[in-house]
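the two lines:
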Amino acid sequence: MKYIYFFGAGKAEGTSAMRELLGGKGAGLAEMTRIGLPVPGGFTITTHACAYYLKNKKYPRELHAAVAQNLARLEKLTRRKLGDAENPLLVSVRSGAARSMPGMMETVLNLGLNDKSVEGLAGATRNERFAYDAYRRFVQMYSTVVNALPKDDLEEKLRALKARLKVKDDTQVTAHGWKQLIAEYKAYYKQKKGTEFPQDPQEQLWGAIGAVFQSWRGEKAQKYRVAEKIPDDAGTAASVVQMVFGNTGEDSGTGVCFTRDPSTGEKVFFGEFLVNAQGEDVVAGIRTPLQLTEMKRVMPHSYKQLEQVRTKLEKHFRDMQDMEFTVENGKLYMLQTRNGKRSPSATFRIAVDMVGEKLITVEEALERVKPEDIERLFYPVIDPKVQPSELRHRLFVTGNNAVPGAAVGKAIFSAHEAEDWAARGEKVVLVRHETSPEDVGGMYVAQGILTATGGKTSHAAVVARGWGKCCIVGAENLEIDLAAKTMKANGRTVREGEWITLDGSDGSVYTGEVGLIRPEAPQAYATLLKWADKVRRLRVRTNADTPQDARLAREMGAEGIGLCRTEHMFFKDFEFPERSAERQLAIQEMILARNAEDRKKALNKLQPFQRRDFIGIFEAMDGFPVTIRLIDPPLHEFIPHEPKKQAALAAKIGIPVEEVAQRVSQLYESNPMLGHRGCRLSITYPEILDMQVGAMIEAAVDCKQRGVQVSPEIMHPLVMDKKELQILSQRTREVADRIIRDAKVKLEYIVGTMIELPRAALLAREIAEVAEFFSFGTNDLTQTTMGLSRDDAGRFLPVYIDERQAGIFQFDPFQTLDIAGVGILIEWAIVSGRKARPKLKVGICGEHGGDGPSVKFCHRVGMDYVSASPFRVAIARLAAAQAVIEERKIGTRGGKNARRQK
Amino acid sequence: MKYIYFFGAGKAEGTSAMRELLGGKGAGLAEMTRIGLPVPGGFTITTHACAYYLKNKKYPRELHAAVAQNLARLEKLTRRKLGDAENPLLVSVRSGAARSMPGMMETVLNLGLNDKSVEGLAGATRNERFAYDAYRRFVQMYSTVVNALPKDDLEEKLRALKARLKVKDDTQVTAHGWKQLIAEYKAYYKQKKGTEFPQDPQEQLWGAIGAVFQSWRGEKAQKYRVAEKIPDDAGTAASVVQMVFGNTGEDSGTGVCFTRDPSTGEKVFFGEFLVNAQGEDVVAGIRTPLQLTEMKRVMPHSYKQLEQVRTKLEKHFRDMQDMEFTVENGKLYMLQTRNGKRSPSATFRIAVDMVGEKLITVEEALERVKPEDIERLFYPVIDPKVQPSELRHRLFVTGNNAVPGAAVGKAIFSAHEAEDWAARGEKVVLVRHETSPEDVGGMYVAQGILTATGGKTSHAAVVARGWGKCCIVGAENLEIDLAAKTMKANGRTVREGEWITLDGSDGSVYTGEVGLIRPEAPQAYATLLKWADKVRRLRVRTNADTPQDARLAREMGAEGIGLCRTEHMFFKDFEFPERSAERQLAIQEMILARNAEDRKKALNKLQPFQRRDFIGIFEAMDGFPVTIRLIDPPLHEFIPHEPKKQAALAAKIGIPVEEVAQRVSQLYESNPMLGHRGCRLSITYPEILDMQVGAMIEAAVDCKQRGVQVSPEIMHPLVMDKKELQILSQRTREVADRIIRDAKVKLEYIVGTMIELPRAALLAREIAEVAEFFSFGTNDLTQTTMGLSRDDAGRFLPVYIDERQAGIFQFDPFQTLDIAGVGILIEWAIVSGRKARPKLKVGICGEHGGDGPSVKFCHRVGMDYVSASPFRVAIARLAAAQAVIEERKIGTRGGKNARRQK
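prediction for all of em together
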């Protein structure tokens, strides 16, 4: 097995395709060498060697010879020798995994220096101070990274030295000063380790390689992998690279740059740069770097060279690059390149611009954008008009930005209280030391979540991320006093009920109500989605219950409504909110009716309201289909459970309060999710069906007569049997056809069913003999197939998803469809449904309709459309296009393997 | 199409195989004619003609000619003519469907009489009184049956006549008297119908045929079909048969008889008989009939003939027969034969005896017994030692016997009260005007149910039948006063809380507590089940949680335990009931523990109890496998919800009561069925698994060391994923293997899973890679597959099952497995599980394991065993044998069509 890949002098054994083997950094160095960019020589030890080392606690046998051989090759190339007393070769040993884990693993620089070679370096560079500075940096780094001596102790010695020397900056320390510090470091090393600081460069090299490999197992790296779902057994590569120095004088320097602006995406050369400095100085933030434009002035030649590199790299990699470089005595060296991270907005702009520049194809542009980019594009953010001075003034504490977005609400310190406040219509932010499964109720109602402890993989972070809810965790300076219901930080106190604002993009917590805005979509977003529309096969509809939502969804590009929930209309009048109470009373009268006759009377009061709502929705969706679902929730949800409210209701209707209470207790169910709801209500109370179908068909007739194009699709929920749907469908048609006949219009409508119970999926072939369409209700189908109540799963599902705990599922099945399990039923239902009715229309209206991987699955199994909430319509449009592109690559569609592709 | 089948003079066009076409009666008459028994001539109009008539509201065109032709043939055979003035032919027109519907449809006798032919009959029989009696009977019957005149009015005229004549019995009325009555009837007919009573025998005949056909649609017939699940479109046949008369003198008579005693099954000739009487007199109960043995004395010749018929018929039909006969002037006529209804106990005895007599094979004997027969065999009954006089004295009211068995309890008049009383440990009988879905809770806890209204298909009857719970409905004399909480009947009053006893076998309600017994099994029962054991392939285990249940089940023939629920052990100490509280406290401490350490401490207290229980169970099942399921219910079920009890618990444990209350509210779930239960508890609290596995393996080791043969099968409930089971299985093996290693015994055990979620069934192949056995938990699998909460479905499931309402399902899916839906998942899981593990052991432990049709399904899909509650073990043994017999007939086994066979 080949464990090492050499690069140098324009040739490289590796390529950019070898990320898995060489890590991002190693692959980048090899590729840059290949295409003729100035890269210091070196070699990369593969991730396989690391995996072997971690597994077997020793190196592969062949590795020793290979390192010796490649080191000799590097020495030959550079005409220097490691540890040489005259002109020594210095190397860095750098970590680098296949998937970027910035700052999570270790690196050792200036390796090869010892008491002799430091003199050689001083002689060769004619700069003793530089040489001893390099040596002390190496001793310091080696001691902490390879031998785990406490960083603070060494830093303290440096501080003490500077104090003795009465200087402020490191740059003011002379060669003599560094020699003193080196002696102190070495003494400290001997005291702690019992041996001398290693002078043998070979020992140094193997120590550094081992430390880099070990750092894969470091605590922070492990946590990062859990959060980013990076496999634990991949391992890191280690690149041994000739050192170049940006701190050898005024014609040296170092910097990082992006080929385009990573926040706006604009095609400008963007970066920072320090003269006479090492890379670590940029990172440490000791000196303020210059803008890259300044480099043009101070180092015009190197800048020009860098400009050429920029162009060449973008052309070569066909993506925006994030690069590190060093200029040593006027000579430019590229140390790293990788695809640059960018803001959601920049993601769109760069993708669209690059198509314009013919760098990439439309299909590639569509693949460059991830569904999360769309989501993040529209997260609320702090209004940019808010003055920075105001923000500085309001800054209360900072924590880790676990979930982006921003949130404003009143600080509440217990989950139960949060639920109570929210029930009163208050906006709350839940503040906890840390959250536990018992807090999910309060977390759910909160605008945002703030915790004092815990990292990005804590319970709070995992749960909030699932909901896309702004969350800041581990605000360590926060002192919460649960008894007093206050929190303190940096000398200020926030009491229960006082407003605070969270900025999840950077982890800042502000006192008071800071203005938020929902960002405007950039031009490129619209362009890219238009391209997506041309590519995709799946239609994208929306879940909307009101004319307002319907209009919003149309703006988002929805091509119809896939789910209009009629029961929300029982609660609220969106046009005339003051009439909401009237609606509520009518539905309550219906439920409390003593017989079918009274039930009909109450329903007759409700019908005009529903008709009006339907007219608004049909108008908003002029020309597009509208799927209307009949009443779904159990009736008890419509009647108050508190004695006071029951008394008020009884008084209004004019019946004894006991009757209300008795009805509530009759309607009690131990598992309402599996109870008397969905079409079971229409089976037992067909009057409800009559009213609802009447309202929607009358509305459709009214619209049709006024020239609005309507295509109602009447949907029965929770069907589990063909005969059940037959009964419902027949009654639906009787009611509808009578109205249409009486109105003498030509109106077409179809009648179908949700598939949201395993039995319905299993018997899809029979059911499709009656149903004209299927709409998968994947929320309930997931609940029943997995035996998992969505409302209750918060108690244990995080344990199931967290890889450090059980790690049974990769995703929350309520966010991303459980393709392995629920997916089987969906595929089965579509295939068997279409056996009975080849042109069966099939869609999805669960929340998975707005989730990228789930939408792609819907495409693969041959659905006709997905339906998503208005703000997720764009995600669905993009994912649907990406599904087509993936399919083209694989060259198959649908069929038996639909569930296997991800 | 042939609409009529003739029989007479030893020849018949029909056979006994033509039940569907000729009805039971028509087929029986044809077959008896064929085999040379004395049967009056006649012809049967088919059920197809009836179905045509009912559908098209007219007769098939060919029918008129066919009736004329067959009537002519009958006239030729009898040498008499219908309506003849000299020697008229009289016929009966009798209904008779394929499936017996006794008393539900109409019959017209003595047809062919009119003002002229009655004189002919008088002359021919030389008995004017007899002739006019026959005529008045005909006029009365024709008026009510064919023309729907009110029966009571005609009866009233008869009463008035007898009063005028000052006689008591009909037999005392003279020919003159009958003539007067006939004149009155005819006048009344004309007054009501506006036309004369029909004198034309053809008109009479067609009127009668139409009335018989129409009676299929009569209200009582329709209701009966719903209750008995007889298809609505089958229709009845109509047999036109020459009249013979048992009332022509002392050498005439009529009777009904059984070839064996229908209550004991003993091989004795059994029946009742009346001299000089018509069949309707037997039914009407006007005269007390004689025992058949008396007939030997009074009509030795006819009796001998009848004895020969008895032997011939049993040999021919190879089953016990129920026959009707008439002796006319010393000549025996057979009017009907059919397989006789018999008591459960007789069913066994007859089947076994007939094998001994080589009349039938063992396989046939096994098929003769239905699972319900076993169940009914063991229903509690009134202790036969109770004196009839006592019962007469206690008789309070009678109703319809909707569900057999007997029940004793305190009368309670509301479902809620019933629940409260039952919660206090009282035995209650729920008494209601009628029950509604809201009453199911109270019905469930009641020993029996009594309603004042409603028939055998009322809500109460349907629900109670489902539970096999004694139920009497429609006790019309009952006056219930809900406000006073009393009921009155026949001058007596029963108050709330007073004891009553229901006898569901005959519908009697008694005051007070009457002694009940569970009947002893007859010898034949044991014989037949031994035969079943030889035939069946499926093993039969039991669901048992205590040593007591385990021993009982062994007596019932169980071959191991298929489901031992460990959580019941948390509540109750069956050996030392006074230690139950100790157990409860330990589990409560476990749940209230603040951390894993305290949880372990509490569990340690529980472990010795569980170990002791397991030892008892293993001993009872020496040599047989025992499947033990780990904790399944959600934890909240173990902590009290009432504040008072919470306070007591808090005091006992020594924690603040708020902590108990808080924990209860933390544990609250909106859908506990889909919540934190089953193996999810072991995933989140592995300490519980450790304790339970420890207890069962320590118990097994202990038994093994004492020479008891143990085969523990450790079962994880509610598994939905392979990885989940992997985690559980690994931990189980760690705990178990350590104990076995330490004990230095050789103990084999296996680890498997329940398949009770659709996802587990869908992913059975993967799961079988880890599971060593599958046990289908069909209760929960039904709940999740159908989205149907068993506890809540009482509100609408009756509507789904009732054919007069939605009629969506044929059976309650919680009683008889939903083969069409849930069955798909089961078959899929077995087939795919065995792909991964060909020798995968598969069983069922839901309550369907004791249901006949479900057990047969389990056989067809290739399960290894079923597990049933102890009292249903015998049902499973029988059904398993019947499944083999059915399979032999069809000549296939398992495979793709398993779900189609019923």
